[in-house]
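User: What would this chain look like folded?
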Amino acid sequence: MLTLLVVGADRKEGTCPESSGRVFCDLEPPRGCTTVEVVLVGPGLSLEYGVRQHEMHNAGRVGEARTVRLSVGYHVGRWHDMPGSDGDGKPWFGTIDLAVAFNAGIYGYGPDEWLPTLRMLLEPVPDGAPCLVVTGYTLEELEDDEEAIRELRPNATWVWEPEVSPHASHVPRVLGTWADDGYRPNDSGGPPRPGDWGLADNAAWCCCVAAPVPESS
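Assistant: Here's the prediction, encoded as structure tokens.
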């Protein structure tokens, strides 16, 4: 089983198992995997009536042959506030293999927003912590996120530092409220190119993991 945690999730990741299944239908699990769990966590989530939190729901099939079962679960709120996220109580999902924060903008939030979640995800544990992938609308924005993460966890291991993502969206993203921050649209007038000043979902990405626990002498 493969368990994927999405922190900072919102309506884009779906409002019910059916819509979330459409969002993640192109996942390609590793060979031999029979089940993929996607755990969606974020205060911006909005669930349709009747969708229950803190349990896994059938969301269809994924994989090239559509033989791998996809399950999704939800928590409307922050990861660090979710029951069981710190190991207390029985979790309703498997051991996390990968954590992802799409277009997080970590640097722009207050200390009670992202930082407690990052502290938990990047806490060294004896069995090894999952990798954390963070994406941004621009490479410049993601470099600011990197700085915030390094201040929080100076000893985190960087699998790769911020770089242009080969999986960037080709759909322009307009965030006019960022104009005062110096972000501006692509001067060419066309769709944003990954890595330029145009805004696009997941235009850049980076990956880090908690430092290993020192071996006892």
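Residues 176-197 have pLDDT under 50 and may be disordered. If you want, I can go into more detail on any region.
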